Amino acid sequence: MxxxxxxxxxxxxxxxSIKVELIYIKESCEYNTSSxxxxxxxxxxxxxxxxxxxxxxNSLAVANKEIANLKxxxxxxxxxxxxxxxxxxxxx
Length: 92
Prior knowledge:
There is one protein chain. By secondary structure, the chain is mainly alpha-helical. The protein is built from one helix and no strands. It is rod-shaped, with a radius of gyration of 39 Å.
């Protein structure tokens, strides 16, 4: 019984130590949860940005095709214009 009485204070100290460690673990988990939330928000923001960039790339691809078509039309018109000018110069 005397041995039990002498070990009780050390058991209480051990329990207090465990309690303090559990508090630190809880705080660490809360911090990690907050950090993960922040990271998740950043990833979501990046995903939105990438989505917008993809839309812009698609728009640019369409615009480039339209520009190429317009250049082709302009070249054809210029050729016809030069041909007409040559015909005007050749006719009396």
